Amino acid sequence: MNAPPAITDADLERLDDFLNSDAVPESAMDVSTLEGFLTALVIGPRMVMPSAWLPWVWDFENGREDVAFSGMAQAQEVMGLVMGLMNRIADAFARDPASFEPVFYRQAVWGAAEWCEGFLAATQRFDAKDWSALWALDALKGAGTTERISLVTPFVRLGDDTGLEITKQEGNAEYWVDAVVPSLAAIHAHWVERRSAEPAVAARVPLRREASKVGRNDPCPCGSGKKHKKCCGQSPTLH
């Protein structure tokens, strides 16, 4: 099977135009939010089916609204762009996670705040317990240190309202923008290692009786001529 064609920034601009059109609810994601959202799904603990996450693309707030495509051709085009973006993310992390370039690195119109908001949303809506366990484990490993940055911190400082306000007050947004990709690479490595360490699930073989069951009134198989219940099938006597 041929690999899907590479999606370009021009393709993303077309996708962004659609996501900002009247065909989708006002609560739809933009391209930056979408890429952050898809990145968390790609590098996360397990695969999430498109049927589960697509409603959130069209309705970032509740995941309930639907999109009104003009026809099959538009539906195929838009879905091709969305899946093409996801494939580009997956390909980047498969080749070299440290070289991944979020869209906000390339065009200022696609903001880092929106990207990180999308990333955090995916970690909260899918496999939230696993993500929370990673954040807790990461915080524990970093306890007592002053140099180490928690893996979730760049996303919180850029994509969470409270964190973003602190970042604005401290004036160090560029520092946290630079920390995004190293955190993504470390998160990706964690889940890859976690999956490879999980033992293979053994096939469950049903227990089978190799010999036919002897009825209580059948002749005892020992050859005594007695009924089984009066011979080897007797309940043991307690003394």
Could you please describe the fold and organization of this structure?
The structure is a single chain. The protein has 239 residues and is mostly helical. The protein is 53% helix and 0% strand. It has helices spanning 9-19, 31-43, 50-58, 72-95, 112-125, 128-141, 153-159, 161-170, 173-197. α2 (31-43) packs across α5 (112-125), α7 crosses α8 and α7 (153-159) crosses α9 (173-197). The longest helix is centred in the C-terminal third of the chain and has 25 residues, at 173-197. It is globular and about 95 Å long. Mean pLDDT is 83; it is low at 200-213 and 235-239.
Ordered list of secondary-structure elements with their pairings:
Layout: H1 9-19, H2 31-43, H3 50-58, H4 72-95, H5 112-125, H6 128-141, H7 153-159, H8 161-170, H9 173-197
Helix pairs in contact: 1-4, 2-4, 2-5, 5-6, 5-7, 7-8, 7-9
> What is the ordering of alpha helices and beta strands?
HHHHHHHHH
N→C terminal distance = 75 Å
Strand content: under 5%
Helix tally? 9
Which descriptor suits the 3D outline? globular
Count of DSSP strands: 0
Enumerate the spans where pLDDT stays under 50 for 5 or more consecutive residues: 200-213, 235-239
Percent range for helical residues? 40-55%
Rounded to an integer in angstroms, the radius of gyration calculated over CA atoms is: 28 Å
| Averaged pLDDT | 83
How does the major sheet shape up? none
Structural class: mainly alpha
